[in-house]
């Protein structure tokens, strides 16, 4: 008898966490720094306060994280283009390239697996995943959800 989708989903979640840990190791960053990098790579430059809000950490902790990322060459601090008092945290081109060299083969592999399914099957898969996300969000306490604004 095939395994239930919920069992496979739990295995997928654990494997995803393992991938994320390995990704952080490849970039020589801890979980907080990786979380910050993911926001910057997805959203582009952000202010340290906004990054702290998105990660659910203090601005002091974010300053320490940004310092580490600057020291590792992953980000730079740049003046905000329209507010001279503010700075933005900007991912470096080399860090973006390294992150993409790790992420994109995995993403392409996932997309290739979808090609094995026709349009109707992909619609069903998408609907299932949307429902799973809704269920997870319904059982995730508010502070944790607010912590990872995407």
Automatic annotation (TrEMBL):
It comes from the Bacteria. Transmembrane segments: none annotated. Residues 5-134 form the HTH marR-type domain. InterPro entries: ArsR-like_HTH (IPR011991), HTH_MarR-typ (IPR000835), WH-like_DNA-bd_sf (IPR036388), WH_DNA-bd_sf (IPR036390). It holds the Pfam family MarR. GO terms for molecular function: DNA binding; DNA-binding transcription factor activity. Keywords: DNA-binding, Transcription, Transcription regulation. SUPFAM superfamilies: Winged helix' DNA-binding domain. This is MarR family transcriptional regulator. It comes from Microbacterium aurantiacum.
């Amino acid at each position: 008898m095939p395994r239930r989708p919920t069992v496979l989903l739990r295995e997928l979640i654990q494997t995803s966490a393992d991938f994320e840990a390995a990704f952080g190791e490849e970039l020589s960053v801890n979980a907080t720094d990786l979380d910050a990098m993911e926001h910057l790579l997805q959203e582009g430059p952000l202010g340290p306060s906004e990054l702290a809000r998105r990660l659910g950490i203090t601005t002091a902790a974010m300053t320490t994280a940004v310092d580490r990322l600057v020291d590792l060459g992953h980000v730079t601090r740049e003046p905000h283009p329209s507010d001279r008092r503010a700075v933005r945290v900007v991912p470096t081109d080399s860090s973006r390239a390294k992150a993409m060299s790790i992420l994109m083969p995995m993403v392409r592999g996932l997309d290739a697996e979808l090609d094995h399914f026709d349009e109707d099957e992909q619609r069903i898969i998408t609907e299932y995943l949307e429902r799973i996300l809704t269920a997870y969000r319904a059982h995730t306490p508010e502070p944790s959800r607010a912590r990872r604004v995407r």
